[in-house]
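Fig. S4 source data, part A: sequence.
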Amino acid sequence: MARVTEDKQRSPRNILAVDIGTTTISCHHFDESGISLYHTARKVQLLHPHPGWVELDPHVLWDQFVDIITEVMEASNLKAGDIAALGISTMRGTILTWDRQTGRPYHNFISWQDMRSHDDVTSWNRSLTLKSLNAGSKFLHVLLRQKKYLAGSVVNFTTQQASIRLHWLLKNHPELAKKAELGVLAFGTIDSWLIWNLTKGQLHVTDYSNASSTAMFDPFLMEWSSLLTGLFNIPLAILPKVIDTSGRICESHKDIFGGPIPVRALVADQQASVFGQCCFDPGDVNCTMGTGSFIDINTGSCPHASVAGLYPLVGWKIGGETVYLAEGNAAGCGTAMEWAKQMGFYDDVSKTSDTAFSVESSDGVYFVPAFNGLQAPINDNKACVSLMGIKSTTSKAHVMRAILESIAFRFTQLYETATEETHIPLMSSVKVGGGISNNDFVLELVSSMTCQTLDRPSQTEMSALGAAFLAGLASGVWKSRDELKAIRCSQALFQPKASIRDKYLKSFDEWKEAVRRSGNWYKWD
């Protein structure tokens, strides 16, 4: 009987983690062992009101959020009081504005994939204002030798940035600009909208990892950038308060889940993945291969300023600790896989690796995955998707292999850029996650091209695990990061092979030529 009493009095050890990605929203129930005991998912409902526009209904997203948490609680027989912490990981750069008094959204979420601001991007990147900023920053860097001015000397804008899409909104909707000036309008990314609703409009916040991903935040000063917001005439008052990634975020309103649930982590998805992979130390590298391919290098307590398209991000801020990442991304890789399925190049994604291995080579076929332009180190938002070298003998297997090779080549470019720029020695194997990381062909090729061992974990939904880790640390379910390292398990290691690298060096060069020929294709101005 004493044992039962002790167990009843014991603090709850259940953690819920919600991950809102580009294609799915999922919720996991983790216990202190780090095992997902139950999970459920819903497809994110993307809207395309005009060509190139990508939106989400904020009410539908909120309903899905509540629905999946409720389902997990019911399936696991949990009440609100049984939950030690909720961690929330969200895709970055998807933006919304709403009324501070009523909480009513003024429009749908505008996704990070949305292209409506491309004319503004082109105009700003060619503007005298930006050229003056670049030149002035370059002069200050030469004079003062501070990296933050080096970053300013090469800054340019892309459609993925929240800042440029918010600028587009305020410019094209004068009524919203007026509401912003009057302080009636609130701006936020998905995390801010969820916390606003969880607290019935009591909190308007975001965390440092999400804020640093908006291109309106200064990671060197750790505050909203008056320079960047001033360029776009964005009032600082509409932006959310920036808070720690892990800690006492808030309690959900008791009416939503039958009682308050403590929210203890709020984190951007890529940063959550880095934490879930236990990349806690400078030189640790994580690669997420999902809708886009991302490489993140832990740069410790110093933000990294790039000259080739990497960008400095806050990985997480917990109390007095701030950890920075240098990140590069290739946005079209996962989209390439979806397109290949729609075109009939494969039916079952788990068999694409075998399909690629079924032929000796792509037979001179090259694919350029530029569905959202080409990011670092190419930085060309006018590049087009292309499939080159098709012959009468080309089969589906050749095309599928070319598509998978292109994903590996894009990551290799990112890796080479990141390691050349940061000059930080890699401390361990490269951690990989995301749906495409389940493809042995891609990982074998990436390992050989980068000459690095790749470590694929037994759990590949690392953003959810990272949110759970951050929430669990804040609530005392785990006491240290050493406990988290013991939880993370490797499922497979991919070792580099010189024979594969030698075989592909010429193909890599020819693929780069295909990329060059795909460049600057679209004429939007």
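Fig. S4 source data, part B ends here. Residues 136 and 153 are 7 Å apart (CA to CA).
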